[in-house]
Amino acid sequence: DIQMTQSPSSVSASVGDRVTITCRASQGISSWLAWYQQKPGKAPKLLIYAASSLQSGVPSRFSGSGSGTDFTLTISSLQPEDFATYYCQQANSFPLTFGQGTRLEIK
Amino acid sequence: QVQLVESGGGVVQPGRSLRLSCAASGFTLSSYAMHWVRQAPGKGLEWVAVVSNDGSKKYYADSVKGRLTISRDNSMNTLYLQMNSLRVEDTAVYYCARDVATPPNTAVAGDYWGQGTLVTVSS
């Protein structure tokens, strides 16, 4: 199975900050990577798929990049509603696997 | 608008069975692959299974293979997860999700999710 490792596990930031979250795959996954945002008690929300394709309706301050084994999710200017947990997920091969999550907290 | 509504969760003893349903509306179910994803209390997301748009292909997480079965009835606009030989570690909120991809791709990412249904396995 492909292991997905996110870093950091948690990060504190302020409104307006630029934040980058990293996801590393244990083997190459081409561009088959998605990013989700999850708030407490809610279902995950798709932000990015195919490494860099912005899901419809998602603000442009979210962007994704990378290919192979190393990927990043960048939030260009944090807004109050962005404080949540973020997960990456690979879709290169079955079983699909998620990263352990990155909790984004208010500083 | 796209809606996914899970049902069928509850409290069940270890070794027993349960069937979850996911009612889909607002889109043509037969055009999309569908997933089940779960989240144990206080833990991260775990992918469980996916079924292709026509039901011909199914893939599972190793942790559920042989015990949980995904299926669909496109005529009823419903996705199912039959859960047999349940274990304490199956306790989680179970989400159904539509895949963003269209055939021939089977799985890329979940673009619409239900609100989840809680399954608690306990004696």
Question: What does this molecule look like?
Answer:
The complex is a heterodimer of chains A (107) and B (123). Chain A has 107 residues and is mainly beta. Chain A has no helices and 11 strands. In chain A, strands 2, 4, 5, 6, 9, 10 and 11 form a 7-stranded mixed sheet that branches. Chain A has a 4-stranded antiparallel sheet with strand order 1-3-8-7, with no helix packed on it. The N and C termini of chain A lie far apart (36 Å). The model of chain A has no long low-confidence stretch (mean pLDDT 97). Chain B is mainly β. Chain B contains no helices and 11 strands. Chain B is globular. The model of chain B has no long low-confidence stretch (mean pLDDT 96). At the A-B interface, strand 4, strand 5 and strand 10 of A face strand 5 and strand 10 of B.
Short description:
The complex is a heterodimer of chains A (107) and B (123). With 107 residues, chain A is an all-beta fold. Chain A has strands at residues 4-7, 10-13, 19-25, 33-38, 45-49, 53-54, 62-67, 70-75, 85-90, 97-98, 102-106.
Helix proportion range of chain A:
under 10%
Total number of beta strands of chain A: 11
Strand count, sense and closure of the main sheet of chain B?
A: 7 strands, mixed
Number of helices of chain B: 0
| Main pleated-sheet profile of chain A | 7 strands, mixed
Largest interface: A-B, 23 and 23 residues
* Number of DSSP E strands of chain B: 11
How do the helices and strands follow one another from N- to C-terminus of chain A? EEEEEEEEEEE
Low-confidence stretches of chain A: none
Mean pLDDT of chain B: 96
Distance between the termini of chain A: 36 Å
Structural class of chain B: mainly beta
Shape of chain B: globular
